[in-house]
Amino acid sequence: MPVFERIKGFTLIELIVVISLISIMLFFAIPRFQRNVLSDSTKEVSRWILLKIPNIKERAAREQKRYILHVNLDSNKLWITHGAMLEEALQSAETNGYKLPGDIKLLDVEYPDQEKISVGQADIYFNEKGYSDKVIIHFENDDNEKFSFLIEPFLLRVRLYNSYAEFGD
Fold first, then answer.
1. Which residues contact 124 (CB under 8 A, 6 or more apart)?
2. Counting Cβ atoms within 10 Å, is residue 40 exposed (0-12), middle (13-18) or buried (19+)?
3. pLDDT digits over 77-126, tens only?
4. Which of 64, 129, 163, 165 has the greatest CB tally within 10 Å of its CB?
5. Rounded to the nearest 5°, which phi and psi values hold at 93?
6. What are phi and psi of 40, to 5 degrees?
7. Is the separation of the CB atoms in 107 and 146 below 8 Å?
8. Contacts (Cβ under 8 Å, ≥6 apart) of 157
């Protein structure tokens, strides 16, 4: 019987070499992965907006309540309320709202045929019938990269632009 027909597995040395190579690759890859993917504030904000807006539209239609996304440009905070909330619940919603990471800044909120709101608070309404205001929310990160979210009245999906998009564009 030839020698190569008797070998049915890997030797211990081969296994150790493969495991060592994989370990070395992971040693260099994991910190880069954590830095670039897991802690990227821009992606965190994008996920929040892209998941919350369709959720608010669906809830407004399902519960037959008018929902409001409050965008406070001075405090860099977003929170959600609806018309049937009591004053205490409104205060709680604002207190527990989504605070943007420190390296992300709200620039302004733009409605079609209106001036941009760049200070104070802008409210985006989500009607009981499932549609919303048409609006663009502009953000900027510490690297001076601007990105915009377009909320369409009749579409669930929010469109993300990796630039400062305006209605005239």
1. 68, 69, 71, 109, 132, 133, 135, 151
2. middle
3. 999 999 888 999 989 999 999 999 988 999 999 999 888 999 999 999 99
4. 165
5. -60, -40
6. -75, 110
7. yes
8. 54
| Residues 147, 134: Cα–Cα separation, whole Å | 17
Beta carbons of 43 and 34 less than 8 angstroms apart: no
Q: Tell me the C-alpha distance between 149 and 71, whole Å.
A: 13
| Sheet with strand 121-126: strands edge to edge | 98-99, 77-82, 67-72, 121-126
pTM for the full model?
0.75
Q: Nearest CA to 101 among 48, 45, 62?
A: 45
Amino acid at 111: Y
